[in-house]
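Protein modeling request. Please complete all fields; requests missing the sequence field cannot be processed.
Requester role: graduate student
Desired output: 3D structure, token encoding
Chains: 1
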Amino acid sequence: MITLYHGTYLSIPKPLAKVGRKNLDFGPGFYLTQIESQARDWATIIASRKGRETRAIVNIYNFDYDNAVENNVKFKIFNEYNIEWLDYVVNCRKGKDVSSIFDVVEGGVANDNVIDTVEDYEKGIITAEQALGQLRYKKVNHQICILNQEVIDKYLSFVDSIML
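Delivered output (164 residues):
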């Protein structure tokens, strides 16, 4: 079992894979992280955008990773910022449907720290080599996107919601 976190302003005991924005780093899915502080930070940001009456909430889940692997769930794991990650993120942010390719995608976040580089590459302002040269010095954050509802239903179990 792996403990995962989702930062937001809602308690989400039954996550859905296809709710929310579509043009995100790894496509339309349910996003989580293994880094609790990252989920807390994101929850605070999201809640502040909703207004001062909104409370930040971190949802906690257990993910049965070993069982998912044994049952042939299709994983794509990016261990670093590389050309494959860069092209994948750019394609997803352009709206390319990747939901039939993988069930779960894991890797770095194209957050405020790296998004300018990704967008410059996407627009053709810099080459892939230049983008990767800049990304080499960035701290890799962590995200897991579950693209398949069946994977959520079978392998992700809700533990608790903590109001910050």
